[in-house]
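Reopening this ticket.

The earlier resolution said the output was attached, but the attachment link was broken on my side. Pasting everything inline this time so it's all in one place.
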Amino acid sequence: METIGWEDFAKVELRVGRILEARVFKEARKPAYLLQVDFGAEIGIRKSSAQITGLYRPDQLVGKLVVGVVNFPKKQIGPVMSECLVTGFHDENGEVALCVPDRTVPVGTKLM
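Inline output:
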């Protein structure tokens, strides 16, 4: 494993957001949802394509707090411009489990 310096890690803007909307991303090559995530007043609402269909239904996602990277460049995914990366971990079956705070924290809060 390669090590990085604190300065490198500090460049990554990991923020808490609340999923406002989740719908099936029909145009995606791999099964995915289109998410609208609120990262608070400073950052606003960002779109994300998330391949999390194995463990979640859209109705289970609305209102959920998630951890997202908000300072990656935008990425074109089919007809949609993804504006953030919602984070998660692969489980033993290869499905993505979301990285979420275990307590309620304000949207926009930066990972320390």
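Reporter confirms the inline version is readable. The CA atoms of residues 48 and 82 lie 5 Å apart. The first strand starts at residue 14 and ends at 24.
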